[in-house]
Design goal:
heterodimer; A: 323 residues; 4-stranded antiparallel beta sheet; 10 helices; B: mainly alpha; two-stranded antiparallel ribbon
Chain lengths: 323, 387
């Protein structure tokens, strides 16, 4: 796809142990177009966060190893850039919001300092202008009385407010893409809804793309234009959100959707997918999902499944449900 | 923004006034620090000592100082404290300013009070400058070891550094032809190495590019080696080689006491490095050195602050010890160590010559230790819970 803002092609990220090779991300491919919200969904340990960190090249390089693939951002392969050029991309063009707002802010600086730094790292700004911009950012993300809050330390804010500050820092330089790595996981449900509203509002404001990483399918249904379902380092299903939700083709996606609590099945036991995500160092042969799959046939244990096209951009990696 | 529903913004008024009283970090620390009576005592004595030393350097220096520590009055020697000078044997210029020998006189009839004042400044500056040097070196080395620790040096790096340092040593020793040659070759290798950054990683690196040892290993083993030497004897050796002066003493003490700080900082960095805010700073595009010195250092500085307060006490003791042995600040200048050393011959006839500087050293060292411990209790959240 040529109109993509970010295009990840055949990305492989391995972690080398003493005598193991953990293939955390094993050949994934996704695109994000300008102004689009894309979700990466999957269980814990399936490689979502590693993929996101690799886009910004934040994987520590031993033990991590980017074994192959390309990350094309605005026509440039980020994996080939020098470290100093990469620093100009980070924060300025691609910003990231982290999972834990409790630890992602530096405890010894005021939030005004930290938001200000996000700006001054990339632009030379007068102190007065900087202050105004920080206040405006805090206003935009809905923190009351921002003039006073600038002098607060992170420990004086609540979890939701801290996450708002993290989002303000991400917005500071008007990036083209925001990577949000489970930004609502550590927050309670009401605050979660507020943060999601905020994310949606931000996107309407600027023409920003968002790569949203989550394991919460409710969140996905809320905000995503398109969704990629990951399992054990590969993408098993992709497509427009309504299409994937109403017509899931991969047994893993079907299992995930069936596991959601629902009002119509009130009183029943919750469905769960048996087993756990395989250790990335010891993946099963063939389709990595076959040990947990109720539809598995003999060929699943030996043949790695190819992507099957179901039309309108809906693809899944399961030959059995081709139908 | 107006047509978007914002729960928080709509109820802004309710949130306008934060419920908890706001206290800054410093105020909070002060509250905790205040509870420790001994630490407050230490702080008070420290401030008094600071004022004394500062006024000491003003009052005892210059062409015509208010208190002259070098004025010899042989007829007035070994007078006990609080004795009055005999006005008819002294010229008016020789009479002490206070009209009384507050701390008595020594074997040359010099006013011990004036000499103590002069010595206080030496102790203060030696303590602060030496610890300043050791903290700077320690933070730098510890920061590098903790943050870049996992990166490796290759053989060619080590070779280049070896050639360069050999050249520098040769130049310094005899400014010879060989030194220049060595430096030239080293620089050429360095430029060659820097210009030839390998774009594609080769699977099998050549002999020279093979990883030799990690930066962490290099720095921490250097620390271990430094710690192996009994530091006082190391200082004695170095002081015997370099010309004795106050500044050399400071530098030598500083350069032989940075190892503890390095270990502290490295240990803090190893845990800080894994925290999210460091990754978050990287994700904002902040450079490595800015992350080390602006983002991580303030988080690691608390134990360093504590150890350096106690380090000042140690440096003052070391300086006094050196002066006592005659290796310290050269004689015409008074320090507490050499007042003590001069007085030890008359310990039975004039005990004040040993007791006054001795007690002064004791009090100052004790107050720094008390202050440091109070600071540690205030800064350490685990100890805080107990109180």
């Amino acid at each position: 796809m040529n109109d993509a803002l970010l295009s990840v092609q055949d990305l492989r990220v391995y972690f080398r142990g003493r005598d193991t090779l953990a293939r955390a991300v094993d050949g994934i491919r996704f695109d994000i177009r300008p102004g689009e919200t894309v979700c990466l969904v999957g269980e814990s340990g399936c490689g979502k966060t590693v993929s996101a960190l690799t886009v910004l090249r934040l994987i520590p390089c031993p033990p991590g190893d980017i074994a192959g693939g390309k990350v094309i951002f605005k026509g440039i392969n980020l994996l080939g850039l020098k470290e100093t050029d990469m620093q100009k991309v980070r924060g300025n063009q691609i910003a990231m919001v982290f999972q834990e707002p409790l630890t992602s802010l530096n405890p010894v600086f005021t939030i005004g300092d930290q938001i200000g730094e996000a700006i001054t790292v990339h632009e030379a700004v007068e102190p007065d202008v900087l202050r105004e911009r920080c206040i405006q950012l805090l206003k935009d993300i809905g923190i009351p009385s921002p003039e006073h809050r600038l002098k607060d330390y992170p420990h004086q804010l609540s979890g939701g407010q801290r996450q708002r500050v993290m989002i303000a820092m991400a917005l500071a330089c008007n990036p083209d893409l925001i990577i949000a790595d489970e930004p609502t996981t550590a927050l309670d449900v009401t605050v979660q809804a507020q943060i999601l509203n905020l994310m949606r509002f931000i996107q309407d404001g600027g023409a920003m793309s968002v790569l949203y990483i989550t394991h919460d399918l409710g969140v996905v249904a809320n905000i995503a234009d398109r969704v990629y379902v990951m399992y054990a380092g590969i993408i098993v299903e992709q497509g427009d959100t309504p299409e994937v939700f109403h017509n899931p083709r991969h047994p893993y996606t079907q299992g995930l959707l069936a596991s959601l609590p629902s009002r119509s099945r009130r009183g029943d036991r919750l469905h769960s997918i048996p087993g756990a995500v395989p250790n990335p160092a010891y993946k099963p042969s063939g389709c990595p999902f076959h040990p947990r799959c109720s539809l598995a046939v003999a060929t699943c244990t030996t043949r790695f499944p190819e992507m099957v096209d179901h039309g309108r951009g809906h693809l899944s990696r399961c030959p059995v449900t081709r139908a | 923004m107006s047509d978007v529903h914002y729960p928080i913004q709509n109820s802004r008024d309710a949130l306008e006034s934060p419920a908890a009283p706001k206290r800054s970090r410093m105020q909070e620390l002060w509250q905790l620090f205040k509870q420790n009576r001994l630490a407050i005592l230490g702080l008070i004595i420290f401030v008094l000592f600071f004022i004394t030393a500062l006024s000491g350097v003003i009052l005892t220096s210059g062409q015509e100082p208010v208190f002259n520590p070098a004025m010899v009055r042989l007829q007035e020697k070994l007078l006990p404290p609080f004795s009055r000078p005999s006005l008819h044997t002294l010229r008016p210029a020789e009479v002490p300013t206070l009209g009384i020998y507050l701390f008595g006189t020594d074997d040359l009839g010099r006013d011990v009070f004036a000499r103590m004042l002069q010595g206080a400044w030496v102790s203060l500056t030696v303590g602060f400058v030496a610890v300043g040097i050791s903290v700077l070196v320690g933070i730098f080395m510890g920061g590098i070891a903790g943050y870049f620790g996992q990166d490796h040096l290759c053989w060619d790096h080590i070779l280049i550094v070896l050639i360069l340092s050999t050249g520098a040593v040769l130049l310094a020793v005899s400014s010879s032809y060989w030194g220049t040659a060595c430096l030239g070759i080293g620089l050429a290798c360095l430029l060659l190495r820097l210009s030839k950054t390998p774009k594609k990683r080769r699977r099998r690196p050549g002999m020279l590019h093979r990883k030799a040892l990690s930066i962490d290993t290099l720095i921490m083993r250097a620390v271990d080696i430094m710690l192996c030497f009994p530091s006082f004897f190391l200082i004695l050796t170095v002081v015997a080689l370099v010309p004795a002066s106050m500044y050399n003493i400071m530098i030598v003490i500083g350069l032989t006491s940075w190892m503890g700080t390095t270990r502290f900082v490295r240990a803090e960095f190893l845990s800080l490095r894994e925290l999210d805010f460091v990754t978050a700073a990287k994700a904002l595009g902040v450079g490595n050195f800015r992350i080390i010195f602006r983002h991580m250092m303030p988080n690691a500085v608390a134990p360093v602050l504590v150890s350096s307060t106690i380090g000042i006490a140690t440096a003052i003791l070391t300086e006094a010890g050196l002066s006592f042995l005659g290796f310290g600040v050269p004689p015409p200048h008074a320090t507490w160590g050499n007042i003590l050393s001069d007085g030890k011959r008359f310990i039975f006839d004039a005990p004040w010559l040993t007791f006054i500087p001795g007690i002064a050293i004791l009090i100052v060292v004790l107050c720094f230790n008390l202050f440091g411990e109070g600071l540690r209790d205030a800064l350490n959240p685990k100890l805080r819970e107990r109180g």
